[in-house]
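User: Please predict the structure of the protein below. I'd like the answer in structure-token form so I can feed it into my own downstream comparison script.

Assistant: Understood. Taking the following sequence of 377 residues as input:
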Amino acid sequence: MKEIVQSLREKKVEYLELIYDLIFVYIIGRNNSLLIVSEGEFITGERFAAYFLATLAVIQIWSFSTFYTNMFGRNGVRDHVFMFLNMYLLYYIGEATHSGWESYHTQYHIAWALILVNIGAQYLIEMRHHRDDPDVIRTIRRMGIVLFSEAALVVAALFLPMGSSVIPILFGIGMTAFFADDRKITLIDFSHLSERIMLYVVFTFGEMIIAVAGYFEGAFTLRSFYFSLMGFLIIVALFLSYEMLYNHIIDRELRTTGVMYMLIHIFLIFSMNNLTVALEFMRKEEVSLMPKTLFLVGSFLLFFVCLIALMRYSKSTMKLCRRFLLPVIGLTVGFVAAMLIFREHMVVNILLSVVYVFGMFLRFYLYGTRPNNPSSS
């Protein structure tokens, strides 16, 4: 056990992992396409529900793959075969993710279930290498239960209404959280895990950058310049906030399962996908102001709530305290109120958004760089 933990401390992100992650860049774009609506319209409840389920399902697939690679990946032939097989199956999921997604219900779920079985099979094969280590066997069995049970629920969802697809997702999230125990020494290399998740966040920022490119379309005017600048500044502030958290606040040498860290990131990435779409809606004057304003505000709030939740993994001198939280709460309340008051003025709304995200970044920056940061206050 000691040798395994020692080797995990030296684990680096492999070339194969980066290639595998590229398929998810494609999937992110396909998921976001579910929110594309006709000119002047806003997202319907049915469209958003499909987008919500598809986004969580794909992020969860990535999470399961990442956990296996983190614990047992050797960058060998077997890892390559299983990972490339998953990449191939993900193409079927991507193709099934579009405006006519109802017609691809069977294709989506079969590919989804096979991916889960694929990952579960890797765990079962791994058991032969750890017969004398009960802790490792227990971890493998737990992950096998989660993966094969969720795969069975995915297959069952084929014969149930479309909304039933949320059941396997919630099962996977719930069971993974149930089996998590941060107090025990585990096989997780948190430094490697946090780096993999950071790279996924970067890919998601890439989609956001593409969305803001729409602000530069058409002839150059003062209005187009203003909105393009504001949109770009919003992305800059969001990126800097995560960068400050990752580089200066999170303790990447923690001994932890990292399960909650991953679960929080599922919703963080979901919020980033929402922000990508929300920024596209903001520049469309024909879309109703109230729904797109609420959508943007809600996405911002979810993003920063997730960042604050991740501070449970902070360095020992940077734990959450009232000195950090009270200004954040005050800034957020003021932002929400101002956005609702000026909801009919997009020029003001996007400026308020810039002020808010840079204000939040400043709070993270001051807290992350303050010497002798108190663990409580």
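That's the full token string. The chain has a mean pLDDT of 86.
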